[in-house]
Design brief:
Radius of gyration: 22 Å
Shape: globular
InterPro entries: Amidohydro-rel, Metal-dep_hydrolase_composite, Metal_Hydrolase, Metallo-dep_Hydrolase
Protein name: Imidazolonepropionase-like amidohydrolase
Pfam family, one: Amidohydro_1
Largest sheet: 8 strands, mixed
CATH architecture of the domain at 289-427: Alpha-Beta Barrel
Number of helices: 15
Number of strands: 18
GO molecular function, one term: hydrolase activity, acting on carbon-nitrogen (but not peptide) bonds
Helix content: 25-40%
Distance between the termini: 40 Å
Domain Amidohydrolase-related: 90-463
Length: 487
């Protein structure tokens, strides 16, 4: 992919993506010719801090950051500023997703086909995410090296897409061609399986669970140093149907200790009440899908501890329509989902800090056609499928609304609270002075109805209005979900 001087920073990237990147670089350079000052005027500002909306506001952007924001007349606009009239619109912070997966090669055939160029898939997914208002996302499972390369290219402005931060592998789990993710059976020789899986594992797969506590700490320290990931996610319980515990409480505390020594936040994959309790006791900074506890709701004592400690809860809320469909089509799954739904309602009732979380990836017909990948779940007939990048965050907002989360809290759960949870709130999450100018301009009030989040007029990232029509124009594995229209 060409860098700013036209040279290729990622020589393994295919020629098609190099050509696409050059087009994007031209667009980005045009963006740099904009006036130094941009003033957005007359929109209703909902800044994400929890304060009341500001009608007829002015937002002054200087060099990609918010210089000032407030009622018209309260902000001094330089004479050479570009002025945009947004009368009738609503401006909110750029939206975020606390749990997403940008590399969409999820079946054996696509894993092999895209080997050596997984960053292309990350670019594709990041473009789709940005097109639909997600200016920042957090990738919680994927191949570290390709993700870090894509992250650096996007965050440096060499490619358009959602800004993202990544964890790489879920430590303690095997790679995608394994019993933890895709059961390949006897289809591939061991060398092929090991080669692909190691791109994800980087020495921190299931072999960790057979190590001593000190060896686990050393392996994770090496993983952090060797990959350059932004945060860590480990598996407190497995990724299979059983929900077995993987690490002892002492081992989990060691994982958290090492991550904190390295200056990284840590979260855990949990699927049972006990694995969730252990994650909390180990000192995890964020709770990954804590609503998923199998067939047992979270006990009152553990729920109270989560609320008291103000631990961010990355919850996988789904709509009533989806739950109803599961009840008819997938009764076994519906039972576990109903427990998760009960947990989510309790989180909201007790005032827990919930974060917009979709577990989404970018997929298209080729993935849906694969008989071994979530059969019957990714079909077009499934209502409100929650795990598609570009669509899932709107459905989470709808689900949170249905469960009684206050409208302002929904907005903050999709922006400011995520930035705070990942310690990125110095730059992102609110439309306030000093923050990066990541904004979504809506044609309707998001506090009045959840579907209004889908009525996007503009997406602004780093102070530059995104050409949404040009995003995700080329197709690799993903479908563009299209503008969100609730059923």
């Amino acid at each position: 992919m060409p860098g700013g001087d036209g040279t290729c920073d990622l020589p393994e990237t295919c020629d098609r993506f190099q050509r696409c990147s050059m087009i994007q670089m031209i667009s980005l350079r045009k963006g740099s010719l904009m006036p130094e000052y941009t003033a957005l005027q007359h929109a209703t500002l909902i800044d994400g801090t929890g304060t009341d909306p500001t009608p007829d506001s002015t937002i002054l952007i200087v060099d990609g950051k918010i210089e000032a924001a407030g009622p018209v007349g309260s902000v001094n606009i330089p004479s050479d500023a570009e002025i945009r009239d947004l009368a009738g619109a609503y401006v909110i912070p750029g939206l975020m997703d606390a749990n997403i997966h940008l590399v969409s090669a999820r079946t054996p055939d696509t894993l092999l086909e895209f080997e050596g160029r997984y960053e292309e898939l990350a670019f594709e997914a990041a473009e789709i995410a940005l097109k639909y208002g997600l200016t920042t996302v957090f990738d919680t499972w994927g191949p570290a090296a390709p993700l870090v390369a894509a992250r650096d290219a996007i965050n440096a402005g060499k490619w358009r897409g959602s800004r993202f931060f990544c964890a790489g592998n879920i430590l303690g789990l095997e790679g995608p061609m394994s019993q933890d993710f895709f059961k390949t059976g006897l289809t591939f020789e061991p060398e092929t399986l090991d080669r692909i899986n190691e791109i994800w594992e980087v020495g921190c797969g299931t072999k960790l669970i057979s190590m001593t506590i000190d060896q686990i700490g050393e392996a994770i320290a090496n993983y952090i140093d060797g990959t350059g990931v932004d945060f860590i996610k480990y598996a407190a319980s497995d990724h299979r149907a059983e929900g077995f515990l993987l690490f002892s409480e002492q081992a989990q505390k060691k994982i958290v200790e090492v991550c904190h020594e390295k200056g990284l936040l840590v979260q855990a994959h949990t699927t049972t009440v006990e694995s969730l309790r252990m994650e909390v006791e180990a000192g995890a900074d964020l709770l990954q899908h804590p609503d998923v506890t199998g067939g047992t709701p979270i006990p009152e004592k553990l729920m109270a501890e989560i609320v008291t400690k103000e631990l961010p809860c990355m919850t996988l809320m789904v709509t009533e329509r989806y739950l109803a469909w599961l009840g008819e089509a997938k009764p076994t799954m519906a039972t576990k989902r109903s427990v998760a739904d009960q947990n989510n309602r309790t989180f909201i009732e007790e005032g827990a800090r919930v974060l917009l979380t979709t577990d989404a990836f970018a997929y298209g017909q080729r993935v849906k056609n694969h008989a071994g990948f979530r059969p019957g779940i990714l079909e077009d007939t499934v209502p409100d499928m929650p795990t598609q990048i570009g669509r899932g965050h709107f459905l989470w907002i709808q689900a949170a609304w249905e469960r009684g989360l206050a409208p302002m809290e929904i907005l903050r759960s999709a922006s400011a609270y995520i930035a705070q949870a990942y310690a990125k709130d110095d730059l992102y999450g609110t439309v306030t002075p000093g923050k990066v100018a990541d904004l979504v301009v809506l044609d309707a009030d998001p506090l009045a109805a959840p579907e209004n989040y889908g009525k996007i007029r503009d997406v602004i990232k780093d102070g530059i209005t995104v050409d949404r029509d040009s995003l995700a124009a080329s197709r690799l594995l993903a479908d563009d979900p299209g503008e969100y229209v609730p059923a």
